[in-house]
């Protein structure tokens, strides 16, 4: 039987941008598999919210920094797809999970570098690789990047470098999966007021005010500004957008 409902796998879907993307995709009738690292209760609340819409959703634990765990995670995904949707495949992969860190170059440590690399580059690279056999032809892959690959914020050298690697990876990936009709794009948010990076923007009115003043629309972003863009990139209307970096920053540092 042909799979009719679209299904999305969203990493880091328990809060922030991932949560909003899950809700917006569910609103459009998409089944949701979301992952969480430690926030199981928060993830379960997102699942309950999606189920209240009449859609199916499940939450799976995943540490995106631990590549050795990916084989067993893919088994879990396969089992969840069969149990909940009667299929072995899904349609949209949203590589959203991430951590923030503000570390000047002079203070950088190898440990911090490796941690950011494992979460933001190595983990994304190999989770995507291992997900490809489960991804339907004609599917979508969306990788999250950052405005700080275009403009520089002191302290973000490691984080932005990993995201720069993701932007290059996205183009190569698009080239290699193109014959399967799969598109791959990068979404690069600007400053967003969430609990990301210890809520660095939310907790610092001076920083928030400065960033708002440097944004054409006069404010910092919110998670609700981003989820709908992810949902759009997964839609049929976005089928001809491929290998692009799409910045959603309200017009920062123009």
TrEMBL record:
Transmembrane segments: none
Coiled-coil ranges from the UniProt annotation: none
Domain of life: Bacteria
One Pfam entry name: adh_short_C2
Keyword terms, alphabetized: NADP, Oxidoreductase
Matching SUPFAM superfamilies: NAD(P)-binding Rossmann-fold domains (SSF51735)
Gene Ontology molecular function: any one: oxidoreductase activity
Family: Belongs to the short-chain dehydrogenases/reductases (SDR) family.
UniProt-recorded name of the protein: SDR family oxidoreductase
